[in-house]
């Protein structure tokens, strides 16, 4: 009876392995094209493992017919195959997670300093949202005020530290399904979905307060760091606006902020700034 249970569960796990493996192969060249030769080698190893387990299960099932499910040979082989199938399934999942992170970094999809999306990756994800959803989207350009001066006085190591801490503040104030990327230098871009304008502005204001709190921490360490955040926000919806249009509008709103004293949030409107 125990052998039959192991045989059944092992076969189920093996089918899950095949499913995971097929998904892995289907997305391989799209997501991991730059290292596809190395991954193809790993794929071939998994092919052999899966074929081996299928052959093994065939032998077990034939042995059940010949010797009965209680035979020691069948019991041992069924357990070996069961735990082997578990090992293959876990390995495929772990490999997928590791390769996804490593290759995305290699393809410049993750900013090495802040761990946010890069400009290219952020653009692609926001474009994808606009192409596949009709929901509202707000696109915010964040610019660190007085960052160049900070770099000049305290050096690039402190500047990098500030950028990392600002990125943490940004991540703490957006949802997990929203997009934040480092656009370049001290500029960040955030895509915020399915929110009201009031909710978007409230989140951006929280970010601004978080950055001011960072500046206070540096002041307490006898380092006068006068930084703030200026925001320009463009709003639109999937199917009716393009990424380029929204970036242009957010840029106009950011220019308006810079011209009128910095460290503020403004949303672009066709009728003017709100």
Give an overview in words.
- This protein has 274 residues and is of the alpha+beta class.
- 65% of the residues lie in helices and 15% in strands.
- Strands 2-3-1-4-5-6 form a six-stranded mixed sheet, sandwiched between helices.
- A hairpin with a 2-residue loop joins strand 2 and strand 3.
- Helix 2 packs antiparallel against helix 3 and helix 6 packs antiparallel against helix 7.
- The chain is elongated and about 85 Å long.
- It starts with a helix and ends with a strand.
- About 3% of the residues have low confidence.
- What is the number of E strands? 6
Low-confidence stretches: 29-35
| Percentage beta strand | 5-15%
* SSE-based structural type: alpha+beta
Describe the strand arrangement of the main beta sheet, using strand numbers: 2-3-1-4-5-6
Mean pLDDT over all positions: 77
Assign an overall shape: elongated
Largest sheet: 6 strands, mixed
Along the chain, the helix and strand elements come as HHHHEHHEEHEHEE
- Gap between N and C termini, in Å? 72 Å
Structural Rg? 27 Å
Estimated helix fraction? 55-70%
Count of helical segments? 8
